[in-house]
Each structure stands twice: as structure tokens, then as C-alpha cells.
């Protein structure tokens, strides 16, 4: 089966469609495939993976001498990045144990470092989005619980229509002013909120 192009996959994802792909069984397998691609646009991502524990000898056993030379260089670059960012890793031990020695230009390091920092920022943003989504979900759950305590399902449906800027029928509008509006005004009354707050605080000390 022919693999869909990255351009097509990205376009489909923007439209909400997700393709399921098989995952890697090990970090070594993923690193080996990246190295075998021989594409700097992909191999520049390796410092993100080398923070994890990996079997250096197993990887080297499955790549050629040119790929191993590139791998060694990226290990040294990644180690320098981790030192600069104060990220703990076992790369120093890997370098010492396997006597890894390769040279790289300062421009190369800066290129890898820039991509690393950008990727870390993207990960942080994604994490923040997840936290915000979870917080919003919790708020919605709390809101729904409070609404169900005060209002019947019929009243909640009408309020949801108003909240979503949907037009009410004449019957719904009359029902809102007759059965919902006064409750809303009472709940929004600061004096009532203060009174209920005092009740809650006092109850804790008397129970």
C-alpha cells in the first residue's frame, strides 16, 4: 500500500480526519529509522529522543558507517544541548564508554539547538492546552451540577438556547419571564451571595 504524502496527511488532519499509523516497538527502532532516512530535516529531531535510555550498540549494529558517524555527531550535539539546558541524561556515560569522537561546526550546533528549543516550546504549549481543556471540562461539570440543583431540565434547555444565541419561541419566552428570570436575578444578587457564603462558613464551624 502506498503511503500518503505528508502534505495530504496534514491537510486531512486540518479537516479533522486522523490516520492511524503503527507505533515503534522501541526507542532504538525509531532512532534507526530516522538515521536511515538520511534527511537532516528529520535527523535534527534526534536530540528530543536521546534524553531517553537507548541501547547504543544495538543501534550501531543496524546502521552503516556513514549513519553511525552522523549518529555519533548528533549524540555529541545533544549532550552539549542538555548541558546548556541543565537537562539530566546518560549521554555523557554513552560517550565515554564508546569513546565517541566527532567534530561539528558551531553553526550546526545552533541549528540543532534552535529546533530543540522550538520543539520543547511546542510540547509546553500542547501541555498547556491539555490543562486548559481539563480545567474547562471541570468547570462545565461544576456548572452543570449547579444548574441541575437550581433548575429543571426544561429551564436549563431554555437557558442554553439563550446562551447559544438561539431564538426562543413565544411560549419559551413567556416561560422564561414567568419561571426563570426571577431565579436568575436572585442568584445574581450580591446580598444573597454574601448571605449564603456566611451560611456555608458558619455551618462548617457549627457542624
What's the quick description here?
This protein is mostly helical. The protein has helices spanning 6-14, 27-37, 40-43, 46-49, 56-61, 65-85, 91-97, 106-150, 153-163, 170-188, 190-206.
Q: What is the terminal-to-terminal distance?
A: 69 Å
Number of strands: 0
- Averaged pLDDT: 82
- Uncertain residue ranges: none
Using only CA atoms, what is the Rg? Answer: 29 Å
Q: Could you describe the largest sheet, including whether it forms a barrel?
A: none
The total number of structural domains is 2
Q: How many distinct helices?
A: 11
Shape: elongated
Order of secondary-structure elements:
HHHHHHHHHHH
How much helix is in the residues? over 70%
Sheet-strand content, in percent, reads under 5%
Structural class: mainly alpha
Describe the protein in words.
By secondary structure, the chain is mostly helical. The relative contact order is 0.05. Helix content is 74%, strand content 0%.
Short key terms for the protein model shown above:
single chain; 207 residues; mainly alpha; 2 domains; 11 helices; 74% helix
